[in-house]
Each structure stands twice: as structure tokens, then as C-alpha cells.
Design brief:
CATH architecture of the largest domain: Alpha-Beta Barrel
CATH superfamily of the largest domain: NADP-dependent oxidoreductase domain
Helix content: 25-40%
Number of helices: 18
Shape: elongated
Strand order of the largest sheet: 11-12-13-14-15-16-17-18
Structural class: alpha/beta
Largest sheet: 8 strands, parallel
Strand content: 15-25%
Bound molecules: flavin mononucleotide
Number of domains: 2
Radius of gyration: 25 Å
Number of strands: 18
CATH class of the largest domain: Alpha Beta
């Protein structure tokens, strides 16, 4: 009831958004609902199971790997299919000739969509004359495997994997190669499961724990979203930044090492953000851009709204699109975003200002699980129930207003508990608050147009808060929301 009223108020308030004329209208942090116990986080689809198979043996093993890992199956299909005569070995046929020709690179029909989202690539092939078929060489030369792990596997009449896998290493030298494994025909699911288990791979992403030790000031670590994509755990919020100020802020952020920029149709700055990104020296693919579409006209005509963001940003694809807050036609709008994901226009989807009561109902109506929920969160409004609830669903939680928001930042930054902790670590109050967000598993998008503050906000990797200090900040919670969403 309370939430429905809040959405109504939210809609009324939308015109007054920039002035934030409406005050707090909801209370989402005090609910004591327990997350569903049997709903474990979704498998992270950052594994690709690529295989080449002419007579189905390797395909069978690949399907077992897919079943075990939840990875995406991809068949390497030759542009010119191999006929039975082509495969007849020791006849001087096509396969024999290709295997004897070091420069043979049979063409592949089609390609892997969004290869960049995969961290682990299982690569399967039949042994042909002791080696991998040359089409595997074509495959490896077609993509950039930097930062990826490749796990070869093969099937054969009797030969072992031998040198067939190690001979592939130089074709994707920037990848990490794990030892390969040969399987006979008729391999069972359990034999494959046992092998995959022995590799010790991580199938699900814990979206609430970040590798903070890998962060450096000016370089935030990433979290793996349930969509398989990596997102930096700190970014620049651009609400209230427009025109040249906005452009300069985005540029300052990129120069400081910030690689996540958060915008929204409602902020009226997507065009400037796109310009700043295009004018920067940072490659597009290193930057993660979040934007949002807004209830009302945009939810009624979501295809146009999505296209408007794509056009204004003009940076190719959008990394993440969110619904700005619940409202009429939100499921319809999300389904249009799902279609845009299928079309390669958007990579990941999420929600903003969504709480416990809405999330289960929403998830049951859509196909793609939201990867992110972006809500107001700060030490005075900690959402102590919402945060673990979302995490349990495999959803990353991101804080807007991480410092308390307009009119409240001064109070929070001078809170005596925060200041005492900041002095103990010789850092600023803002840095303590951001570090607290990250250590409790919440990513954040502080907004600023001040280059010094932007740099400060991405420099929270030289210290850590003790559990006592984390508890002291947890005790500051007043369940005090500072905006009306
Ligand atoms: C051209 C060619 C060469 C082959 N060479 C070998 C070999 O050297 N050693 C071996 O054990 N099997 C060899 N085989 C058999 C295949 O490796 C085996 O049947 C494999 O499981 C087929 O996989 P697929 O059904 O996924 O195509 C060869 C097959 C072909 C077509």
C-alpha cells in the first residue's frame, strides 16, 4: 500500500524532480522480509563452451560441460561443411590435406556474440592426425583472448590429447591456458562433471564481495554481473551535472581512472556524456555507461526511449540500462530493453529505486534477471534488509546519494564517528564512507564536478576499515531517507 502511494507521489513529483520539491515519501529499509531460501544467485554466464564436431562426439562432451557450468554453447561451424569424403582419413581428402598444411585456416560461418563477456572458454575438438583441426586455429586467431582462460578438451578414436592443445597456445598467447583433457566417445555426464569439478572454477558470482585488494587508487576493481559482464565498483554519478560542467566532470573522471559513468534520460545530459567519452583518450570498451529510462511517456513507448538514449549517447552500445523507478508499464518497458539486449544494443539490465516488495513480483514477469539495483543508500539510510535480499537474488546493489544527498552531505561528512575514523586512517570522511559501502558489498556512484573530489572518490584502496569501524558506521543507521523515491 505504502509503496503504491509512493509511486503515485513519485509520478506527481517527476516534474519537480530537479528541485526535489517532494520530500521523503517512503520507508524501505525497515522491512523484515526474509529472502527466499531456495533462490540461489543465478549462474554467471561468463563461460563459453565452444566446440567443433563433425560426427557428434565432441558435441556430446560440450553439451555435458554446458549442463555442468551453465555456460553458453557455441558450435564452430565451417563455412564449407565437411562431407563424409572430406573426413575419410588417409585418403588424401580435404581433412588430410588441411592437417598437413600449416597455413590452412578453414573459414568459420558466423561468430561468437559479445566474446568480451566471457572469462572462461572451454574449447573442444576432435583429434585429427594427432592435432586439433585447422578450423580451431582459425577460431583462435579470430578473437582477442587477453584476460581469458582457455580450457581445451578433445575426443578421439584412441589418441591422447598429446601436443594438440599445447600447439594451440601460441595462437592465443595472451590467454591463460589450462591443461586439456581427452574424452572417448560415449563419455557420461558424471565423468565430465568430475573433470570440471577438478578445475575448481567459480560458477556463480558472489555479487556482495569485491576483490578490494586488487584495487589501486585511480583503479577500481570490477564485480561480475549476472549478465557475465564486469562493472567497476566505483563510478561517477552525473545527476545535476549538465552542459560544459558535465562534460568537464566526465573528462576529469576518466582522467582520474574512473571507468563507470552513471546517467539517465531524466538528467538531460546523455548527449554531453557521450561527447565527453568520444573526446577522451580512453577506449570506449573500457568505459561502463549506465543510463535509465523514465516512467510515463518513456515506459509507454520504450523502443523510442531506448533509441533516444542510444542516439544521444552515440557510443555504440549501452552497457547497462535501468528503469528509473517503478511505474505504469514498467514490465513492458523492461521487455523492450530485453529485446534491445538480444539485438546487441544494450548489454545488461537493471532497476533503480526498487525494493523488496516489488522485486519478486517483477522478476517473475521478465526473462532477464536484473543485474543491478540502484537505490538511495548512505550511513543514515542503510537499507539493511534490502541489500542482502538483492544480493541473495544475485543482484548487485549500487548506492546513489552515497554521502547522504543534497542538503545532507555536510552533516554526514562531519559526523563525528566518520570524522574520527577518517582521522585514524589519515583519509577524508568521504573516503571512509565509500570504503564502508564497498566493504559491506555495495558499489557506489558518488557525484561531483570537482576534479579533486572525483580523484579522492576513486582513491579508497590504500586503507581498510576494521570490523569494529564497520560496526560503528552500521550503528549510525537512522532509516532516514533523503529523497522521495
Ligand atoms: C581426418 C580425421 C583424422 C583423425 N585422426 C585421428 C587420430 O589421429 N587419432 C585418433 O584417435 N582419432 C582420429 N580420428 C577420429 C576422431 O578423432 C574421433 O572420431 C572424434 O571423436 C570425432 O569427433 P566428432 O564426432 O566430434 O567429429 C580422426 C578423424 C578424422 C575425421
Amino acid at each position: 500500500m505504502k509503496k503504491k502511494f509512493m509511486f503515485f507521489i513519485a509520478t506527481l513529483c517527476s516534474l519537480a524532480f530537479a528541485l526535489s520539491a517532494c520530500d521523503r515519501a517512503g520507508d524501505n529499509g525497515g522491512t523484515q522480509l526474509v529472502p527466499p531460501q531456495n533462490d540461489s544467485p543465478t549462474a554467471v554466464s561468463n563461460m563459453l563452451v565452444a566446440y567443433f564436431s563433425c560426427t557428434g562426439t565432441t558435441k556430446g562432451v560440450a553439451e555435458h560441460i554446458e549442463a555442468k557450468t551453465g555456460g553458453t554453447l557455441y558450435e564452430i561451424v565451417p563455412e564449407i561443411p565437411y562431407t563424409e569424403a572430406d573426413l575419410a582419413y588417409y585418403t588424401g581428402g580435404r581433412a588430410d590435406k588441411e592437417q598437413a598444411d600449416s597455413s590452412a585456416r578453414p573459414a568459420i560461418s558466423g561468430s561468437v556474440e559479445n566474446m568480451e563477456k566471457y572469462k572462461v572458454v572451454f574449447l573442444g575438438y576432435p583429434i585429427w592426425h594427432g592435432q586439433a583441426p585447422k578450423i580451431i586455429y582459425t577460431f583462435l586467431e579470430s578473437y582477442d583472448f587477453s584476460g581469458k582462460t582457455i580450457i581445451p578438451f578433445c575426443t578421439s578414436g584412441s589418441s591422447g590429447i598429446g601436443s594438440s592443445a599445447t600447439n594451440l597456445h601460441s595462437l592465443a598467447a595472451s590467454a591463460t591456458w589450462l591443461d586439456g583433457r581427452r574424452f572417448p566417445s560415449g563419455t557420461s555426464q558424471s565423468a565430465v562433471d568430475e573433470w570440471v569439478d577438478s578445475l575448481g572454477l567459480k560458477f556463480t558470482s558472489d555479487v556482495s564481495v569485491f576483490d578490494l585488494n586488487s584495487g589501486e587508487n585511480g583503479h577500481a576493481p570490477t564485480v561480475t554481473l549476472n549478465s557475465g559482464y564486469e562493472m567497476p565498483i566505483l563510478g561517477l554519478g552525473t545527476y545535476s551535472l549538465t552542459g560544459e560542467t558535465c562534460k568537464a566532470s566526465v573528462k576529469a573522471a576518466l582522467e582520474s581512472g574512473v571507468r563507470l559513468i552513471d546517467t539517465a534520460h531524466m538528467y538531460g545530459n546523455e548527449r554531453e556524456i557521450g561527447e565527453a567519452i568520444r573526446e577522451s583518450n580512453v577506449p570506449r570498451e573500457e568505459i561502463f555507461v549506465i543510463t535509465k529510462i523514465y516512467p510515463g511517456e518513456q515506459y509507454s513507448h520504450p523502443e523510442e526511449a531506448i533509441q533516444e538514449s542510444l542516439d544521444k549517447l552515440n557510443i555504440g552500445y549501452i552497457d547497462m540500462m535501468l528503469l528509473h523507478h517503478p511505474g505504469a508499464n514498467d514490465v513492458k518497458a523492461y521487455k523492450a530493453m530485453e529485446k534491445a539486449v538480444a539485438d546487441g544494443k544494450i548489454r545488461s539490465l537493471g532497476l533503480s529505486n526498487w525494493y523488496i516488495e516489488e522485486i519478486d513480483d517483477f522478476i517473475s514477469q521478465v526473462d532477464i534477471r536484473p543485474a543491478l539495483v540502484q537505490n538511495e543508500i548512505h550511513p543514515y539510510y542503510q537499507e539493511q534488509a534490502v541489500v542482502p535480499y538483492m544480493h541473495n537474488l544475485g543482484i548487485v546493489v549500487q548506492a546513489w546519494y552515497p554521502f547522504g544527498g543534497r542538503g545532507h552531505t555536510g552533516e554526514l561528512l562531519s559526523d563525528e564517528t566518520i570524522v574520527k575514523i577518517a582521522e585514524a586512517h589519515n583519509v577524508t570522511a568521504a573516503q571512509v564512507i565509500l570504503r564502508w559501502h564497498l566493504q559491506r558489498g555495495v558499489v557506489a556512484i558518488p557525484g561531483s564536478s570537482n576534479p579533486a573530489h572525483i580523484l579522492e572518490n576513486i582513491s579508497v584502496f590504500g586503507f581498510s576499515l576494521s570490523s569494529e569501524e564497520m560496526n560503528e558506521i552500521a550503528a549510525l543507521d537512522r532509516d532516514e531517507k533523503h529523497d522521495w523515491y
